Amino acid sequence: MKGKKLITLLLVLVLAVSVMLAGCGKNDEPAPAEDKGQQEEKAPDNNANKGKALKLKVEIFDRGNSPQGSTMKDNPIANWIVQEVKESTNVEVEFVSVPRSEEVAKLNVMMASSTAPDIVFTYNQDLVANYAKNGGLTDLEPYIEEFGPEIKKNFGDFLQYGQFYGKQYAITGKGPVTGAAHVSYIRKDWVEKLGAELPTSKEEVFTLLRRFKEEDPGNVGKDNVVPYAMAAGKTEKYYENFVLSYADKLEEKDFYIYDEYLRIIRPGTKEGYRKLNELYNQGLISPDFALDTSEKQYKQDIASGLAGFFTDDRLKPVDQGWITALQKNVEGGELWPVNCFENAEGEYYRNAGSRLGLRIMVPKANEKNAEAAIKYLNWMADMKNYANIKYAMEGVNFKYDEQGIPEFTTTMEDREKQGIAKTYMNDYAILYRNLDFGSQDKNKLLDVKKYQADYPEELISTIWNVRFDGIPYDRPYFTIPVEADSKFGPNLKTVLREMAAKVIICTPEQFDQVWETEYNKFMEAGGSKVYEERASVYDEMKSTK
């Protein structure tokens, strides 16, 4: 049977190659497998091939970067899932793509009009709570009890993070804390040409930025050097680590209040923005970053060898091929990860990735298909199936080593020729952000093996070390909703990003006035209400424990 499946998969891939061009997707964590004994186990088939097939529509994010000739509904990974799920569970899956950039707005429309797929998801906890409060979601507990043995086995107590108002309205994707969400990278070859050492503090970074500008170690022309590359995309990744290194130490309650998108204006961060303002006015930060909302110039500066330093998602330069592009464009060009944003006590804090992933739901209007939904998710909960999705199918693109750790046997270029974008491997695997092998050594080895066909072990190991160096910013987690977040949060995120850009690019003399004006806009746009409700929720939850 296994040989038959592999032949079928290879035929699918051969057909895919003839119509698809290369593509790439966003970074994410690797997908470990269980030990060899567990790998051979198959999840119960739940009477898989008996009776009429169940129909199921499943949401899938569409990031608009599928290889030419493919879609999120039709590509090697999607086709493999459809085939395997039908064979294993007798559920016929149809994927419904939703633009990632507008997934919340689209989901709201579909939920309101009862046109949503049978399985939907979001990272927005308060949105889930709002749907649950208004009777829009199916209680999944009885369906998990009957059709979800793998879910029960692998999630256990973690299911509590999908419980709202006393019912199991969601299954929350899981994974261990992933280390720093954002990592800083520097042109190691430039540092070496200057006879300097890799920076371990902010002051050392500032010195190097000035020397990059004044001494032009890359011979690109002083007017072309971008010492500190930055953009104004839909995230705070470019400056969050920096400004948090200026933040005051907080008690647990304040950690909860200033969580997620509010981290970037924690008490003390104003001085971090003031320093960025100083660097910008010295010509050390991308001059037009506030206009670069698409990241086009930012990425071009990195790949072409003009940028000396930047901060981005932890593995973005690896996953998106920026390092490879730099090496092709600049002989000897080398990007290297560094941990250099220490706080007042000399400690490294990091914005750690959450253990909580997507909140996966079945709309109340679709409860008739809840059995099929849980059978599908139960299939997805099996570690072997998950690894096949994340690593593009055992025997085709990966194998297990003697410890049961998956390792790629093909390069990124090889997989692109098959028509497999990295997005596919990430966005279909909705139940796990990443898995834990039970030891940091094995988890680190997993990262190394994931990239061994494309990058040297030393680079991946160093990225890992930087990500886990220091103390994570942490806070208590409550499932009680913060309604003000649902109401004002989406707009406040935009307000804060605009505020950051304005206070960085204004003149030093204007800084305090611009800060005050923009902060008042934030408070009037709902920030004050979010603060008040978060404080109230914290007090309520603590009083019940």
Features:
single chain; 545 residues; alpha/beta; D-Maltodextrin-Binding Protein, domain 2; 2 domains; 4-stranded mixed β-sheet; 3-stranded antiparallel β-sheet; 23 helices; 12% strand; globular; disordered N terminus
What's the short story on this structure?
By secondary structure, the chain is of the alpha/beta class. The chain has 23 helices and 15 strands.
Chart the SSEs and their pairings.
Blueprint: H1 2-17, H2 36-39, E1 54-62, H3 76-89, E2 91-99, H4 103-112, E3 120-122, H5 125-133, H6 141-147, H7 149-155, E4 163-164, E5 167-168, E6 171-174, E7 182-187, H8 188-193, H9 202-215, E8 226-228, H10 240-244, H11 252-257, H12 269-281, H13 296-304, E9 307-313, H14 316-319, H15 322-329, E10 335-338, E11 349-350, E12 356-361, H16 370-381, H17 383-390, E13 398-400, E14 406-408, H18 412-417, H19 422-427, H20 440-451, H21 457-467, E15 471-472, H22 483-505, H23 511-543
Parallel strand pairs: 1-2, 8-9, 11-15
Antiparallel strand pairs: 3-12, 4-5, 6-12, 7-9, 7-10, 13-14
Helix pairs in contact: 7-16, 12-22, 13-15, 20-21, 22-23
